[in-house]
Amino acid sequence: MTSQPGGLLRAGTALAVSLIVFGCQRPPAGDLGLPSEPSASHRLPTGARLDPAGRSIAVGNMPLAARVSPDGRYLVLSMSGWREQGLEVVDRARGVVVQRLPQPGAFLGLAWAADGTTLYASGGAADAVYVYRWRSDQGAPATLSDSIVLKADSADTVARRYPAGLGLSSDGRALYVAENLSDAVAVVDLETRRVRQRIAMAGYPYDMAVAPDGRVFVSAWGASSVAVLSPGPEGLRAERTIEVGRHPSGLCLSADGGRLFAASASTDRVAAVDTRSGRVVDWLADPPPAGTLEGSTPNAVALSRDGTRLFVAEADNNSVAVFDLSAAGRYVPGVLSPADLSQSPRAGRAVRDLPTLLRQRGGQRPGPPLVHCGVRHRLRGKDDAGRVSVQATGAGGGRRGGRPCRRLSLG
């Protein structure tokens, strides 16, 4: 029998195409042991199961910053994802987004003017800061009123400045802008809307905190330090740098400005800095719950209103760790709310409204400065008032290098 090379070739080609098509078809979810619909209670591909605490509010893509409105009614988010960039305004009581404000770019920075009628938002890749008028008595409270261009003039040859953290001077006349890609802090005259000064920084300035005495603290994302800038007649001047661990990210200050907390994302620690001496006086250890040395990636911090608890966003744990701080003399009631915690660990499918999550514990005896509760807790569920209760799962502790006394799952 005579072979037919052409027939065999056609048959082989057909078989190969069939196998390729079959191999490229997406198998049913059940065949892989994966859920057919995403759910926060299902396992991730890594094997971790997400079981989030509290309520979730669906928002846009990758919220990097969150600030509570002055009257406490709204939460403003800065969205910096691939799908949308700009602001979203969340009604906290109803748990819904009531306003969306697209921007050409957005990043970390959000800052309120002292009178609560103006909000400043960093524009990220747009190299601008956006200025919003704020009216809480309106259904859509934010209105874009202006933009501040960070390019100094036509002679400015810097390709990209990328504004990140923002802060306002004590007198409200100047806006401070951490320029993440140009390694500088810009000082903007709010009357002329122009940059009047730039101060060189270490690699990738990121977050910013302004103390009551006017000093400005700026984390160097690409280094291991926080810069301290002091106000003077000619503007800001570099005072010192404080080593706080690799990849310093989120910052927050106590109400009196005496204590600075800086999250070191690469070392799973939070530095507690005495701002008067410029020294790190304690390290808060934040390793993953499994006990490995690194992997929590703390990247944002906030103090409770009474200044006795520190909330730390753990980007790679899908959690918020809660540290109990001493009530004895070192901390004054804080001006930062737990909702100031700016990072959402999973590129922003939901935001947690932290003030509704925690059940305050009373009657704790004050201890020496910087004592940390070393008890781990796990969430058990909500009581009739909708508050999350906790159950101790282990004990430990220690005066230095304290560990979280609670960890709230935010998956």
Describe the structure.
It is globular and about 55 Å long. The chain is mainly beta and 411 residues long. It has a single domain (59-357), classed as 7 Propeller (Methylamine Dehydrogenase, Chain H). It contains one helix and 28 strands. The model is unreliable at 8-38, 327-340 and 342-400 (pLDDT under 50). The strands form eight sheets. Strands 2-3-4-5 form a four-stranded antiparallel β-sheet, with no helix packed on it. A four-stranded antiparallel β-sheet has the order 6-7-8-9, with no helix packed on it. Strands 10-11-12-13 form a four-stranded antiparallel β-sheet, with no helix packed on it. 5% of the residues lie in helices and 41% in strands. The chain has one helix spanning 5-24; strands spanning 56-58, 63-68, 74-80, 85-91, 96-102, 110-112, 118-122, 128-134, 142-149, 163-168, 174-179, 184-189, 194-200, 205-210, 216-220, 225-232, 235-243, 248-253, 259-264, 269-274, 279-285, 298-303, 309-314, 319-324, 350-352, 376-382, 388-394, 406-409.
Q: Write down the secondary-structure element order.
A: HEEEEEEEEEEEEEEEEEEEEEEEEEEEE
- The dominant shape is globular
Q: Pairing-aware structural class of the strands and helices?
A: mainly beta
Strand tally, please? 28
CATH class: Mainly Beta
Mean pLDDT: 75
In short:
The chain has 411 residues and is mainly β. The protein has one helix at residues 5-24, and strands spanning 56-58, 63-68, 74-80, 85-91, 96-102, 110-112, 118-122, 128-134, 142-149, 163-168, 174-179, 184-189, 194-200, 205-210, 216-220, 225-232, 235-243, 248-253, 259-264, 269-274, 279-285, 298-303, 309-314, 319-324, 350-352, 376-382, 388-394, 406-409.
